[in-house]
Design brief:
702 residues, alpha/beta, Rossmann fold, eight-stranded mixed β-sheet, globular
């Protein structure tokens, strides 16, 4: 950047702006406060140099040699390197390793990465969708699969066939929906197997380590790294197009406050002005070399709509255009549906994309690859990108200070915020990263300033009792043994060690135990468990249904409600059981050729036949999901071979949601396939059904 260009960048910082009647600036122009001159001078690519591990990485490798280890460090700081080096050390001793991750997409990504490091012949993967080389020296798998393998090992009195377990994204222990799986794994894992936990920064890492030491009898060493590999600088974008430092003196230390210029702006304009359009924000970011960027937005619709405001984002460089075009062709060549994606033109010509759960896995993978390779200027994404996807950028842009949790919008937590900003600044590609806050109706700038300097959030226990857990524990334990297992919960430990009376911990344990007994009582009442608290024959095979509604499905099979010999029909029925969203059952969606009489009759028969069981569950205080016919119709027609477009028109959902429905249906069918000793014909039908529904564009691997 020449001196003349620098002067042009900053000379307009004090000019007055006039707002039109709609609250937008009438003379939007990219500029920046003069105080940012030195900061922007730091932008660039670090000089190439041999890789040198950070001290915390070496400390972690040393720790895992003789103890369990919990590494808590910022996103992008190099935790995967620790995992790889630790696996190498175990391989030298001819020992096996298991790498558990929370997401199938992340597992697939690690499978590719680890295959390059250790050799494809030495790496297997187990995600439900994929089962390849499960006896390899390195196995990548989802946490649910690892938990299920622990259930099986306990049942058969066998030891888990691995010598080392890595649990990635360990802060998921505090996830409201899935944290129970993480906690079960940590409780069930034999002490002989060392554990390496990799986590984003969390506030109570030493507390988690002390809990693990108390239940496993092994020392758990905490490696706590707070320093980001790439420094982060927070900015605020004035509606006029001017960038200001968000905090005093620029950094993000605990004592810093929101800068005076931003404070003045917030008081004067924040409630009166609308934020710049996305294309205008891109102009600012391009002007100051702050691309590529990730925009975190509230909803899928916001992400998709943002693309329409990027029409002016073009590249004049023919070489860059050709490189992007060729890479897109490489990534989509085997997937005809993806190559015709409605956003393809935006991707090729505007260098932008959206990324969210409403998209097909294959399309998201294309976007992730292009972004990680530095070929896109911007991605508009929901907060799911922050969790476990390799998606770095130079700049993160926030337009909201809250997040939808499935039922309501709640302010971002410290952990959520730091996971998002962890994507800003690419190690080895950036000297500095940026977080840009854009004032607007849904943005609390003062909250974001506090989050910049806040301590990481604490992880709390999310353990809860469910029927699958009860059935599987009864497979291999007595009631006394199960009670001792539940005493090992993280929740009980927290109560006993946070200067609370021991009676509080006992009260919580009693509550957990009483809930277990409540589930047990229902299983006895419905003949899955006998009066001696042993599983009946039905209970034994029902324990293999490690799905969301195991008893409903088990009841359907033992009463012979479900179709056998018709794979498409069985897939349709299972789709109704995995669906967790209320659907619009309007008649026009389920009339005519899409809903044949045999499916309509079967669905009504199953729904009516299960009604007494559902009613009994409700009387005993257990929830059962309502069954809807539309998911069944969608999956049935997909299984029959109708086009993706026609099935989408039936389902009336985003194609990512339809793909997820199909994938979850396949998961349920796999559990039915596992019942071949008891229901051989149903197991064969389930296997055939899986083959019918897992096809392009739902799956994107060989």
């Amino acid at each position: 950047m020449s001196e003349k260009e620098k002067k042009d960048f900053f000379r307009d910082k004090n000019r007055k702006r006039r707002f039109n009647s709609r609250g937008r600036t009438s003379d939007f122009k990219p500029s920046a406060d003069k105080s940012l001159l030195k900061i922007f001078d730091e932008i660039g690519v670090p000089k190439e140099s041999p890789f040198v591990p950070d001290p915390f990485q070496l400390d972690a490798i040393s720790a895992i040699e003789n103890a369990d280890c919990l590494v808590t460090a910022p996103t992008g700081s190099g935790k995967t390197w620790i995992a790889i080096e630790a696996i190498k050390n175990f391989q030298k001793k001819n020992l096996k390793s298991w790498y558990a991750s929370p997401l199938k997409a992340l597992s697939n990504s690690k499978y590719i990465e680890f295959s390059k490091v250790f050799g494809a012949e030495n790496v297997g993967i187990l995600t439900g969708d994929r089962k390849e080389k499960p006896d390899s020296s390195v196995v990548i798998g989802t946490t649910e699969i690892l938990r299920n393998h622990l259930y099986d090992a306990m049942h058969h009195g066998e030891t888990l066939p691995t010598d080392f377990v890595i649990i990635d994204e360990a802060h998921f222990l505090g996830d409201e929906e899935r944290g129970v799986v993480w906690e079960e794994i940590l409780i069930y894992l034999p002490p002989r197997i060392p554990i390496l936990l990799l986590s984003a920064t969390i506030g109570n890492a030493h507390e988690i380590a002390a809990w693990l030491s108390s239940i496993r009898g092994n020392q758990c060493i905490v490696i706590d790294e707070n320093k980001r590999p790439v420094p982060l600088y927070p900015l605020c974008l004035h509606p006029s197009g001017t960038l200001y430092p968000l905090l005093t003196k620029g950094g993000a230390t605990r004592k810093q406050k929101i800068s005076k210029k931003v404070e003045n702006f917030l008081d004067e304009y924040a409630t009166k002005s609308k934020p710049p359009r996305f294309g205008e924000i891109l102009q600012v970011l391009r002007r100051f070399d702050l691309l590529p960027a990730i925009f975190f937005l509230k909803s899928r619709m916001d992400c998709d709509n943002a693309l329409s405001y990027c029409n002016q984002n073009h590249h004049k460089d023919t070489e860059t255009k050709n490189k992007l075009k060729n890479r897109i062709q490489e990534l989509t060549s085997e997937y005809s549906h993806i190559s015709r994606h409605k956003h393809m033109s935006r991707l090729e010509h505007q260098f932008v994309a959206s990324h969210h759960s409403g998209q097909l896995p294959a399309w998201k993978l294309v976007v992730e690859n292009l972004m990680s390779e530095g070929l896109l200027d911007a991605v508009f994404a929901t907060s799911t990108v922050a969790a476990g996807v390799n998606f770095p950028a130079r700049t993160i842009v926030f337009l909201n200070s809250d997040k939808f949790n499935g039922t309501a919008f709640l302010p971002l937590t410290s952990t959520e915020f730091h996971q998002m900003t962890g994507r800003a600044g690419r190690r080895g590609m950036d000297n500095i990263g940026f977080a840009v806050m854009v004032p607007g109706k849904f943005m609390d700038i003062r909250l974001m300033a506090k989050l910049m300097v806040s301590e990481p959030s604490e992880v709390i226990s999310q353990i809860k009792i469910n029927f699958s857990m009860v059935l599987n524990l009864l497979l291999s334990h007595t009631l006394d043994q199960i009670e001792e297992i539940l005493k090992k919960s993280f929740a009980t430990y927290l109560l006993m060690n946070r200067e609370l009376k021991e009676s509080h911990a006992n009260d919580y344990h009693k509550k957990l135990w009483q809930d277990f007994l409540r589930h047990l009582s229902f299983l006895k009442e419905t003949n899955f468990v006998d009066e001696d608290s042993k599983l009946t024959e039905d209970g034994i095979w029902a324990s293999k249904l490690r799905v969301d509604q195991p008893l409903m499905i088990a009841q359907g099979f033992r009463k012979k409600f479900f179709p056998v010999g018709d794979p498409a029909m069985l897939a349709a029925v299972m789709a109704s059981f995995v669906n967790d969203k209320e659907t619009d059952e309007n008649l026009f969606l389920v009339e005519g050729k899409w809903l044949p009489n045999n499916l309509r009759k079967l669905f009504n028969t199953i729904k009516g036949s299960l009604k007494p069981f559902v009613k009994l569950m409700a009387i005993r205080g257990f929830a059962a999901r309502a069954l809807f016919v539309k998911p069944a119709v969608s999956v049935y027609n997909w299984a029959l071979g109708h086009s993706w477009e026609s099935v989408l028109s039936i389902s009336r959902v985003a194609e990512g949601d339809l793909a997820m429905l199909i994938l979850r249906t396949a998961d349920n069918l796999r559990h039915i396939r596992a019942l071949e000793d008891v229901f051989p014909e149903a197991a064969k039908t389930a296997s055939d059904a899986i083959d019918l529904i897992l096809k392009e564009p739902v799956i994107n691997f060989d």
